[in-house]
Amino acid sequence: MGVAKGRTEVEVGADGVAVITIINPPVNSLSVDVLFSLKDSYEQALNRDDVKAIVITGAGGKFSGGFDITAFGGIQGGQRDQPKAGYVSIDIITDTLEGARKPSVAAIDGLALGGGLEVAMACHGRISTSTAQLGLPELQLGIIPGFGGTQRLPRLVGLTKSLEMILMSKPIKGEEAHAFGLVDAIVSPEELVRTARCWALDIVEFRRPWIRSLYRTDKLEPLGEAREILKFARAQTQKRAPNLQHPLVCLDVIEEGIVSGPRAGLWKEAKAFQTLLFSDTCKSLVHVFFAQRATSKVPGVTDLGLVPRKITKVAILGGGLMGSGIATALILSNYPVILKEVNEKFLKSGIDRVKANLQSRVNKGKMSQEKCERTLSLLTGVLDYQLFKDVDMVIEAVIENVSLKQQIFADLEKFCSPHCILATNTSTIDLNLIGEKTMSQDRIVGAHFFSPAHIMPLLEIVRTRKTSPQVIADLLDVGKKIRKTPIVVGNCTGFAVNRMFFPYTQSALFLVDRGVDVYKIDRACTKFGMPMGPFRLADLVGFGVAVATGMQYLENFPERVYKSMLMSIMLEDKRSGEATRKGFYKYEKRKASPDPEIKKYIEKSRSMAGITPDLELMKLADKDIVEMVFLPVVNEACRVLDEGIAVKASDLDIASIMGMGFPPYRGGIMFWADSLGANYIHSRLDAWSNLYGELFKPCTYLAERASKGLSLSAQVNQAKARM
To answer: What is the annotated signal peptide range for this record (predicted)?
Structure first.
């Protein structure tokens, strides 16, 4: 059997309205088949004498999720026989739909995103349900709206609102869309198609105006004002995303339509869309889109036909920063949570932290006070294990102390039911060690959240050789329900994210010891697209944690750890980062500024190590600093893959973006590395390791890939999976 193609169907009622339904599950995306079928259905309706008007809707309660993104890979890979955006935008959407001699109304439920909304905007009326989502999120994929969205949205909602929706990829609900004039009426899902039919007939009978969105001007600001708005938007965009071109191209296209007329705008949009489709940014962001959806495909787990068990109640041990953050994430997704602490004082602090997390959502307008109270009622604080007998999962989030964790897991085995999942949020301790004193090693698993746990989107699920596939399947399901992107990794020091990125700070410390300015390194990394450089990050994490984790790596990978005394020296002088308001930076009201005082600590660190500044390194350009900091990260990521700690390279791309803030428009750490090429990376690391030692020594995996001319991400059967 071939793959079912997307299509549209036409049904003509006795009232003379042809209802065209888009059918392409799950979200009725606009594949090439759907677009051509839509054109055919339209022409059929236009040619029939018994059809007075047209209604477009989507099957299964969804209008359309937009242009079929699965076609992108083919187009970018060189299958250029796909229809050009200009043909779709002008021939199908503008001339056939909007220019038709019979009026049409879009009946919108569920989703009208991207191309879906662009089709709806070309209709002569729009009826929506209150909960439908309408938006143009194309910029998230490195492109711009390509089916007329840059021209029609400003004409329907005004320039200011359209820029917010397009530049921020921010969808709005039906109610708000109605308030801004994007839709003409709000009705219940049951009344939707009937109302749209009546509306379309009203246009035929001249009871309602027949409006072509493309030629409306009443919502557009006067030219001078429009230019000011666009100028301000350009400045904001450059400030927010200095490395990205496509948002600026989008603004140019919108301006063209306002200055030279909508038809000129459509042609400029079509050309820009076609060019951007082949840009590196678009390729990277499309890769990230698919990679994110692929993290939940895990060989040996998700291919076994396992059904996730229902997790109805969760217990958390420890109400500190991590425990309270995890509790917040769970109750926000309607999981009842039991929070256990060792005494009343700690328990009150833990519950107060959760309250503060929720209150901050209320203050930002993301939650009503009533919903906040309701959510908080899902949390129960306890001081003993009495209520643990009927929980389905426990997450331990106490301090990093092996014997304490061993004792806790021995207790949990006694107090919890035999099916209860026993998870730990440790970020450094070997899971086999934690479960050593239990008989339940098949249900012990790592659930490693990133701080703050209720905000950061990544969840590392860590399995040992003994963890059962069922437990992993259960945790993948919980991860999805609490809106995290889960990646399944093997058990080793630092797991995937922290292990990959431990050289990030190491290389930076190496450069500082040799005379490179701390702030120059941080600036080079933020210019590259990181949210913060290695030294600002060390301040945020705190030197205590940084030194302790450094010791873990020194113990496990002694040959490639750079032994810098700098942070220890600063710690001795009560400088431990942002918490003490002094680290590599000084802090006033959370604002970081360079601190000239750090020079004396750097000089002391240098003299203790017997190192003199290296004039060659001190002259390094930003590009070389970035490579010296990130290529050792790539090298470590290769080891993580080679040892089978990660299932696939694209999982490490997502881990680097969501766990460390690696710029998504570069596609993730491995995708970016492949854009440089294994050979180039190997030769640079090899040259540095000859000059500066083991910190830069290329691993076998990298050397093999370089010699065979293979990409670093190419899948090879991993015989030695550490899972």
So the answer is: none
Contact 408, 423 (CB under 8 A): no
489-505 per-position pLDDT tens digit: 999 888 999 999 999 99
Question: Do 51 and 261 meet the contact criterion of CB atoms below 8 Å apart?
Answer: no
Do 124 and 137 form a contact (C-beta atoms < 8 A)?
Answer: no
Contact, 429 vs 494, CB < 8 A? Answer: no
pLDDT tier at 163, thresholds 50, 70, 90:
very high
Instruction: Tell me how far CA of residue 361 lies from CA of 96, 168, 364, 458, 644, in angstroms.
Output: 46, 20, 5, 20, 39
CB atoms closer than 10 angstroms to residue 587: 17
Residue 500 neighbours by CB distance under 10 Å: 30
Give the start-end residues of each E strand in 298-376: 314-317, 337-340
Looking at 77-86, 511-520, 536-545, 557-566, which range is the least confident one? 77-86
Segment 89-104 mean pLDDT: 94
- The reply to whether 118 belongs to the active site is yes
What pLDDT score does 4 carry? 59
Closest-CA residue to 116 (of 95, 142, 97): 97
List, edge to edge, every strand of the sheet that includes 125-128: 7-12, 17-23, 53-58, 104-108, 125-128, 185-186
pLDDT in tens, 305-358: 999 999 999 999 999 999 999 999 999 999 999 999 999 999 999 999 999 999
Which residue, among 97, 296, 56, 324, has the nearest Cα to 213 in the 3D structure? 97
pLDDT confidence of residue 551: 86
Residues 498/552, Cβ–Cβ less than 8 Å: no
Q: Three-state SS across 531-596?
A: CCCHHHHHHHHCHHHHHHHHHHHHHHCHHHCCCCCHHHHHHHCCCCEHHHCECCEEEECCEEEECC
- List, in order, residues 6 or more apart from 687 with CB less than 8 Å away: none
Distance CA 190, CA 192 (A): 6
- Given 9, 43, 118, 344, the catalytic residue: 118
What would the two tokens of residue 377 be?
Answer: 């009622």
| Half-sphere exposure in the Cβ direction for 273 (13 Å, CA) | 27
Token pair, residue 604, equals 């002391």
Quick one: pLDDT at residue 720? 43
pTM: 0.92
pLDDT score at 639? 96
Catalytic residue chosen out of the listed positions 9, 11, 138, 344: 138
Q: Where are the alpha helices (DSSP H) in 11-97?
A: 32-47, 70-76, 85-86
The pLDDT tens digits for 55-71 are 999 999 999 999 988 77
Length of the chain: 723
Residue tagged 């905007």 (tokens): 121
For the cut 70, the answer to whether the pLDDT of residue 445 exceeds it is: yes
